[in-house]
Design goal:
With 239 residues, the chain is α/β, with parallel strands linked by helices. Helix content is 36%, strand content 23%.
Length: 239
């Protein structure tokens, strides 16, 4: 079985930073907002503006961009649930050559404030420049298990979950199923939910199939990136 998020795959951080980050997680619940507030507060002081679980936009773009091009709209809407301080939203906003409307959602106000600061160019920074003049990006604080305050039903063409199921599931599978239900609720009829994880299909697929009856679940292997194989779980409405 592939290792889960609990094995602390923390992207391309330097060894010292990885050890400090892993030490902060020891004995903690990855579903605890206070933990993430502390981690994001620490990390935003680093010279690197973003932090990625697993991998970043560069590794994901080959899968994300074709899905957006398949959307039957001139400006597809993208929701990144549990965006944290990942490069995913920023990379899509600044590098996608086609119009795209992106919302990053996280329950940590520290993460949302930091990402909004990067976007708007606060504290003497240069504001981010979109890859297409019509593209939009915003960040909102919300509980991914209850997206009602920020997202109406059927309003997004692509919903991205990069490690969020993994973190929420550490607090119990009922919470992970709530997350899945909300992601499917806000998805448009022709849309796609994609979960990025290092969890084996033997473990993840039965859970997703149980929680998304009436939808089709497929899996693609990604990587290996830095010696680790990942999986993309795609959920689309059955026809």
């Amino acid at each position: 079985m592939a290792a889960s998020l609990g094995t602390l795959h923390v992207g391309t951080l330097a060894v010292g930073a990885r050890r400090a980050f892993a030490g902060s997680l020891a004995g903690s619940s990855l579903a605890d907002r206070c933990l993430w507030d502390k981690l994001h507060a620490r990390y935003r002081l680093d010279s690197t503006p973003t932090f990625d679980w697993f991998f970043g936009y560069k590794e994901a773009q080959g899968l994300l961009l074709p899905l957006l091009q398949e959307a039957r709209t001139t400006c597809p809407r993208v929701l990144d649930v549990g965006c944290g301080t990942s490069s995913l939203c920023i990379g899509l906003y600044t590098k996608c050559p086609h119009p795209v409307d992106i919302m990053g959602v996280d329950f940590s106000p520290v993460a949302v404030a930091h990402m909004s600061s990067l976007l708007e160019g606060r504290q003497g920074q240069t504001p981010l420049c979109p890859g297409h003049h019509a593209s939009q990006l915003n960040f909102k604080q919300a509980d991914v298990k209850n997206l009602q305050p920020v997202a109406s039903s059927g309003s997004f063409h692509l919903v991205v979950d990069k490690g969020t199921w993994d973190a929420v599931a550490r607090g119990g599978l009922p919470g992970a199923y709530q997350l899945l239900s909300e992601c499917l609720r806000v998805l448009s009829p022709q849309g796609t939910l994609i979960q990025f994880s290092d969890e084996d299909p033997d473990v993840r697929l039965p859970c997703l199939e149980q929680g998304s009856q009436g939808w089709t679940v497929t899996v693609q292997e990604l990587g290996p990136f830095r010696g680790i194989t990942y999986f993309a779980y795609l959920i689309q409405r059955s026809h």
